[in-house]
Amino acid sequence: xxxxxxxxxxxVFEDLATSLETGRMEAKIxxxxxIDGSELGLDVMKQAxxxxxxxxxxxxxxxxxxxEWAAEFEHxxxxxxxxxxxxxxxELLDSGEIQGCVTLHYNFPIGVSTVxxxxxxxxxxxxxxxxxxxxxxxARNEAMVLNAINGLVAAKACGIKQPTxxxxxxxxxxxxxxxxxxxQENGYELAFGESQREDGGKVLRGNDLLLGxxxxxxxxxxxxxxxxxxxxxxxxxxxxxxxxxxxxxGIGRHYDRNICIISRxxxxxxxxxxxxxxxxxxxxxxxxxxxxEYQKADQAGLKQICSELTAAPAAQxxxxxxxxxxxxxxxxxxxEIMELEDAVKVLWEADIYAESGMGCxxxxxxxxxxxxxxxxxxLKKANYL
Length: 385
Prior knowledge:
single chain, alpha/beta, 12 helices, 3-stranded antiparallel beta sheet, 12-stranded mixed beta sheet, elongated
């Protein structure tokens, strides 16, 4: 009997055993793992692989160096831990031989970024961080709006029917909030969560990350990358990631490969969790969910909203002098810090004296109490609120 026939017979019996064990006749999902490149050595890969084997949720396929323990798994041998392994991973994914893969090194195309998953320390809740690596857009605010879509895709593919979303209090947060509200008002199904701080709101503070106030937190990739490292390795001193499920799958418009990222400092628990994350995404049809969400967002005007975010600002044609100075005691919050001085000048042009300032929750515009309603109306008309 040839080796190919033996492998076919073996697979038939394995599939039969799986169907008897689970009551399902469909083929078992296969998830790949590239095993080379970790700063912690191959032993962490071995520990993660056998932890997954013991759970028997899916079949693990190894890609990489010839090591003795790899004989326990389906194994594709490579001599180049980066280029050759990446090409082989892509080939296996595109052919359908595997339905997802966890890897350390991968260059996603522009427009694709990864959604990490951590466990928050306060209440032990799962939190999706959108995003943690990759470049969704060269324009920061557009990138964060698209990151919100990507975060929802990941959460929905993992079985959360209506994920709540919040925006981390970083540069661009209020602009991104306005854009997402516009998308929601245009018909895109989007459920905002709320900060647990006393003043609430859709913009999240650091406390909210620890609590897991929402399902998906939106931020830029650099900030998200730092958050992942802090959540993953704060208990180990930083050189061994022990918590969470890694930096997550690359998601973007027209992108459907289920490739999940870990770092060179990811320990065995994180690698195993990343493999289970990839399995959940495969089971939840990540590519299909992504296509559906982007179609729905486009129907709600996503492309137009993004084009407005990337449009060049109009040149200032005249110098605006402030009206007569008044006592300013009433605060208007919720204005993006990069737009604060422009917002003040909008009020000056409307003959309302205003000053910029910084309140306990962020940037504010200060006006006289009698001018508060009119000032709020002017700022809303100018799209600063």
